[in-house]
Task: structure prediction
Amino acid sequence: MKLSCVLLLGLLAASTSLAEPWSPEPWLADLEQMRQAFDTKYANRDWLIREREFDLAAMFERNATRLRDAGSDAEARVILDRMVQRIGDGHVALVWPSVKATTATAPSDLCTRLGYDANQSSQGLGPALSGFRRVGNESDPFPAGTIDVQGTRVGVLRISIFLPHGTPQLCRSALTELNIRTDQSCDEHCADSILTRAYDKLTNSLQDQVRALQAAGAKQLLVDITSNGGGSEWAEAAARVISPRPLQSARWGFVRGEHWAKQWRDLANELRNAAETASASERAQLLAWASEADTARQQAEKSCTGQPDCEWLGRAGFATGLVGNARAGSFDGKPWGVHVFSPAQYPYRDSVWRGPVMVLVDDRTGSAAEEFASLLQDNHTAIVVGGRTAGAGCGYTNGGMPTTLPNSRVTLRLPDCVRFNVDGSNAVNGVIPDVVVGMRAQDGTKFKAKLVETKLPDASRLAEKQMATR
Result:
């Protein structure tokens, strides 16, 4: 026994001495891959360098040194995570591979499997505001009520997320109408049909709730999108429901390269195919739009490598497509309409609300929620009140251009598009409120509501004045 122990200790010592030391080289290769991605795929690169005054090259040098001084994979991962956090762009993310538990079972409920989850929705600040009187049910997709601000009845409308996924009941209603069982399998076509029906219900619910607030005597509207992290392009349709006047969408920028070249090429082909069976007048317009898509494709195919005077981004169209402003119903019955004006895919109506509007935001308002707020602000149809928004800006189109790093297998996601505000600035700067409230997202609901109440009279007066000058 004694000899065996000595032998065992010797073997352990030998195996320890033979173990290879940790090497930073694979992680340095990942860092280099990240640098190349930022140089070729990152839509906000110029904003980061010029407006944020961020030394991107120096950042990569510093983190290369830190990786060389690290001693484990865990330390290396922390270095990359902190680097991304420091950039401060809500759409720059590292998605680390996860290990799925072998015992995990998929939920039997179809809506749950498709990502519908009530935890994505919240009541917002409305119920905490003094004198709040609920309108409709608490379980509505858009909880609402009224308050009084210096003698004016104000409707308070909560939008938690610009997606139907925060309201599972929308999915369940769609299943019933489509005669789909909740326990059955569902392919991509099935999921799309459910999603389309859910969006229709979401749109109608928003319009019904606005009408309910009008019936309750509301003369002004406060739309609460605090802690709303975004959603989808449905935000453009929602804004048109809320706005008392027509809206012009933000101008659009995109990363040059094959990702966007393909999107513009596909769009031009779609429009030319539609022109083949269109009327003479529509054919001319479709071909004109196809020509615009061709010009945008040429921009996407142009490389700026080694050309210091070349603009980093291509520019064409609007956040809604090639058309930035169209009345609701303009493209009804035209399958190609959604290709030029994205809100055409939803059954919305313009200006369901016709009075003064305020939009409540905070530092967790991001992405599509910022698009909603800035669209109304830039068109002078709403007063934005609250804190400066998160600054997530535009995100990923058609899946974006993810980069999988060779060593860690982590996926780097970078935004490939830009929305430009009416003053020409990049929307990733965030929305600056017209009336600033000194609150933080992590503050308690009652305290935030108290701070908001002190500023609502100012916002209400500005909204009334804005309405009078339209």
About this structure: Residues 459 and 470 are 17 Å apart (CA to CA).
